[in-house]
Amino acid sequence: MTATSRETEGRTAPRKEARDRSRDGRRNRFETHLLTHYRPVWQAAQRSRWLHRRLNSTLTDLAVLKAPPRPEPLSTKSPYTSWDSLTDRSWVGRHLPPTAGPPGSMPPPQEVAELFRREGEGKYCARSTALLPAFAQWFTDGFLRGHAATGDPRRTDSPHTLDMCQLYGDREEVTACLRTFEGGRLKSRMMDGAEFPPALCRDGEILDEFKAIRPVRFDEVPKDCVDTLFACGGDRVHAHVGPMALNVLFLREHNRVAGLLGAAHPEWDDERVFQTTRNTLIVMMIRVMLEEYINHITPYHFGFVLDPVRVDRGVWHRENWATIEFSLVYRWHSLIPSTYRIAGQDLPLARTIANGQLVLDRGLGPLFDDLSRQPAGLSGLFNTDELLLPIEARSVAVGRELRLASYNDYRVHYGFPPVTHPRQITGDSRVQEALLDLYGGVDGIDLYVGLFAEEPEPGAIFGRLLERIISVDAFSEALNNPLLAPRLFAPSTFSQEGIQVVRETRSFSDLVHRNLPEESGRYLVSLGSAAGDTRSPAR
C-alpha cells in the first residue's frame, strides 16, 4: 500500500486548494522568493569565500532579528520584570507576556490532541529521513528541559546552552560516574569489536556506580528492556532507538578524540585531556548542527556555515535563555514514523523505545543506514502516532498553564500579519474545518496547534511561523556558545589537533564513518532524501 493510499484509506480525501497567501506579508514573501529561487546566482556567490562569509553573516542576522533580541523582559517567574526574572535561569524564558487567562470556551487539551491523531501509517515527508527527528530529539533534550524534581512547567533544569549534557551529564556527580579518569576517556565496553556505553542496569536495578544517573520515566521502561539501557549523561536518551544510537556515536567520538589528544600531548593529565576533548566535541557538534541540520530544515539555496570570527558582532549576541515557545516548536511528533524498518523487519514505534538491544544487535553503521533510508513523517496535524497523543495533549495543556498568547499574537511578534481565516493557514479543507469546529475562528487558536496547522511552502518541511521561531532561537542558541567567542576559539582551548577535528567534520556521515570497526563498509547517513531535495548541491 502506498503512502497516499494509507492516508486516504477509510475516508474521503480532503479538498486541497492553494493556501491564501494574502496574510504572509509582502516583505516575507519577497525574502522567501529571493532565498528559494535563483539557484545559479546563489551557487556563484558561494564560490567566493569573501562573499559567502559576508552573506552568511548578513543572513544570520536577518534570521535572528525577526524577533526582538535577548534579554527578554519576562520569564515564567512573574508577569512583570524583576531582577530575578532577568537573572534566575531556573525559570523558563518567554517571548511574550502571559495572557489574562484562556476563556472558558477553549476546547479541552484531550479534545485538541485529536487534531494530531494519525490515521493508518500516516503521511511521509519527501525531503527528510527518519534520522532528522532522531537527531532533533537528541539535540534538544540537552537544553530544552523540564524540571525533573517538581514537574513544574515554569521551571527548568536546562543549562541554556549547547554543552552536550546528553553525553556528559548535567551534574558533576553524573559526569564523574561516566569517566574512567584515565586518558580523558568515558567508560565504555567492547562488543564484537565495536564500542558501546556500559550497561546502566543489572537484574532490573541501576548499578551502584551509576546511581547518580536518574533516567526520566524509568519506572515506565518495559521490564525486558531495563537491562538494555545505556549508562549515559542524558536522562532522556533512552526514549527512542535514534537518540540512543546518537549517544553511542558521540561516546565513540569522544574516546577517539581523547586518544588523539593524549597521544599528541603526553604531558597532559587526564583532566586536561577530558576537558579539551569535551570542548572540541561541543563545537564540532555545533558545526554539524549548523552546516547539515539547519541547512536541511531551511528551504534556501544558501548554505550557512560556522564562522566564529563574525559571531560576536551581532546585536543579538547575548546570554542564552531557553524559552517555552522554543520548547513547543521542537515537539516534532508527526515526524516520527509509526513503524521502523530495522534490519529488514518492521517494528512498531513502541518496540523502539528504551530498547538498547536494537542498537547492540544491529550495529551503529547499519542502524544509521536504516534510519537514513526511511522517510520521516510529514509535519502537520492528523499525523501523530497514537502512542504520542498524550504528549500532544500535555503540550497544549502546558501552553494554557503558562498562559501563552495565541497563535495570531505570535505571528505578529515574529513579523507576520495575523490571519483572518484558516485558509490563510492551510489549503487543506479538513484542517480548516477542524480549526473552525474547535475554536470557532482563528483568534483563539493555541500557539501549539497553529504551529503545526500551517502548511509548509513548496520545498519546505515546516510552516512559516515554526520555521521562523527555529531560525531565531536555534541560530542564537548555537552561535552564542562561549566556546565560539574570539578569545576562546583558538588552539589554546581545543589544541591544534582539536581544531583540526572541527575543521574535518561537516556531516553526520563524517562522524559515523570514522567511528566504525575497520571491517565495516560504507553506509548511507543522511538527514535528507536525495530524491526529495532539489536544492543547490553547493550546500
Structure explained in plain terms:
- The chain is mostly helical and 539 residues long.
- The protein has 21 helices and 8 strands.
- The strands form 4 sheets. Strands 1-8 form a two-stranded antiparallel sheet. A two-stranded antiparallel sheet has the order 2-3. The chain has a two-stranded antiparallel ribbon with strand order 4-5.
- α7 (131-140) crosses α10 (241-264) and α11 (270-297) runs antiparallel to α19.
- The radius of gyration is 23 Å and the shape is globular.
- Residues 1-28 are annotated as: Disordered.
- Keywords: Dioxygenase, Iron, Metal-binding, Oxidoreductase.
Short description:
One of its GO terms (cellular component) is cytoplasm. The protein has helices spanning 3-8, 26-36, 39-47, 49-64, 83-87, 109-113, 131-140, 165-168, 172-178, 241-264, 270-297, 324-329, 356-362, 364-373, 389-401, 407-413, 429-439, 447-453, 464-479, 491-503, 508-513; strands at 124-129, 189-191, 194-196, 201-202, 205-206, 339-342, 345-348, 375-377.
C-alpha geometry: globular
Largest sheet: 2 strands, antiparallel
Main β-sheet, spatial strand arrangement: 1-8
What is the total number of structural domains? Answer: 1
Overall pLDDT: 91
Task: Please tally the β strands and state the result.
Answer: 8
Element string (H = helix, E = strand): HHHHHHEHHHEEEEHHHEEHHEHHHHHHH
Superfamily (CATH H level) name: Haem peroxidase domain superfamily, animal type
Helix content: 40-55%
Weakly predicted, low-confidence segments: 1-12, 534-539
CATH names the topology as: Myeloperoxidase, subunit C
Distance between the termini: 34 Å
Estimate the strand proportion. 5-15%
* Text of the CATH class: Mainly Alpha
Structural class: mainly alpha
If helices are DSSP runs of H or I spanning 4 or more residues, what is the number of helices? 21
Give the C-alpha Rg: 23 Å
